[in-house]
């Protein structure tokens, strides 16, 4: 199981700061928060749901074809499900349920690798959704920092983290796009995010990220209303591996179902 913590300015790393942000900057950050749909602000307390992964469903199908239905290896993954959970703080987690190792070390090791691959893709693509939709973009910890600068230029608004490994988030005039840029040592050097309009605020719908190996990872997110909350419905991911002589694409889909949602008594402002 992996738990992913949230904070926009800790997008790729953590930097400590002891002083507080000035009131003008705090006001600007809160104004940015107000443009986007936020589940916590809408009254979400916690949730969990199941995720069906096309990658893992394909793996189960291959096992069934190769080993047969009664084989321990096929049976060990037959009823496996992925569970996404958000307990109300400290980020979200992804875990496998109903998995029983087959006892065949080679097969179980291979299954663990498949789990890890699926989790990595989910984590990397759910993270920006969580940053911009699950909790406020700029949380309480961000508002206590003294190394945030805001600049306006050419109709765009930049939020800059001043440090030895800087992060810059560039919003367009209508806040419908955000370019996230990081330093040379960052795991993901840049991400381009796009949002769609909803009466309750802007919702993340697309992302494109540059990976260290030169590949480009993009996703499209569809939402659904569950108990009045706009939750993920389908996540379509494509990874383009750009080589010297050819290009290889890897597509995967994730479907979110069986939500269990708890809400707070009052909405947060």
Give an account of the 3D structure.
- The protein has 269 residues and is α+β, with helices and mostly antiparallel strands.
- The protein has one domain (22-261).
- It has five helices and 13 strands.
- The protein has helices spanning 23-34, 54-67, 72-78, 105-134, 140-143; strands at 2-4, 44-53, 81-86, 92-97, 148-153, 156-161, 167-171, 177-182, 190-196, 203-210, 216-226, 229-242, 247-263.
- It has a 13-stranded antiparallel β-sheet.
- Residues 1-19 have low confidence and may be disordered.
How are the SSEs ordered, and which strands pair?
Elements: E1 2-4, H1 23-34, E2 44-53, H2 54-67, H3 72-78, E3 81-86, E4 92-97, H4 105-134, H5 140-143, E5 148-153, E6 156-161, E7 167-171, E8 177-182, E9 190-196, E10 203-210, E11 216-226, E12 229-242, E13 247-263
Antiparallel strand pairs: 1-4, 2-3, 2-13, 3-4, 5-6, 6-7, 7-8, 8-9, 9-10, 10-11, 11-12, 12-13
Helix pairs in contact: 2-3
Task: Give a quick precis of the structure.
The chain is 25% helix and 39% strand.
- Tally of separate helices: 5
Structural class: alpha+beta
How large a portion of the residues is in β-strands, by DSSP E? 35-45%
The average pLDDT value, as a whole number, equals: 85
Would you count the extended β strands for me? Answer: 13
């Amino acid at each position: 199981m992996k738990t992913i913590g949230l904070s926009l300015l800790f997008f790729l790393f953590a930097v400590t700061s002891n002083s507080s942000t000035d009131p003008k900057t705090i006001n600007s950050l809160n104004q940015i928060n107000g443009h986007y749909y936020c589940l916590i602000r809408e009254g979400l307390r916690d949730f969990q749901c199941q995720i069906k992964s096309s990658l893992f469903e394909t793996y189960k199908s291959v096992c069934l074809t190769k080993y047969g239905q009664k084989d321990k290896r096929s049976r060990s993954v037959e009823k496996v499900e992925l569970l996404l959970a958000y307990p109300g703080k400290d980020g979200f987690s992804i875990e496998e349920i109903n998995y029983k190792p087959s006892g065949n070390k080679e097969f179980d090791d291979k299954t663990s690798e498949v789990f890890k691959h699926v989790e990595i893709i989910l984590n990397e693509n759910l993270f920006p959704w969580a940053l911009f939709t699950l909790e406020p973009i700029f949380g309480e910890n961000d508002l206590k920092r003294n190394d945030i600068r805001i600049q306006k230029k050419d109709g765009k608004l930049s939020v800059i983290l001043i440090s030895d490994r800087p992060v810059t988030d560039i919003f367009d005039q209508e806040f419908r796009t955000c370019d996230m840029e990081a330093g040379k040592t960052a795991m993901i050097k840049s991400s381009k995010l796009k949002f769609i309009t909803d009466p309750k605020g802007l919702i993340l719908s697309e992302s494109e990220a540059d990976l260290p190996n030169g590949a480009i990872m993009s996703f499209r997110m569809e939402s659904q209303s569950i108990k009045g909350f706009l939750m993920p419905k389908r996540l379509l991911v494509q990874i383009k591996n750009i080589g010297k002589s050819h290009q290889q694409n890897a597509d995967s889909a994730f479907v979110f179902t069986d939500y269990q949602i708890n809400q707070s008594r009052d909405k947060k402002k």
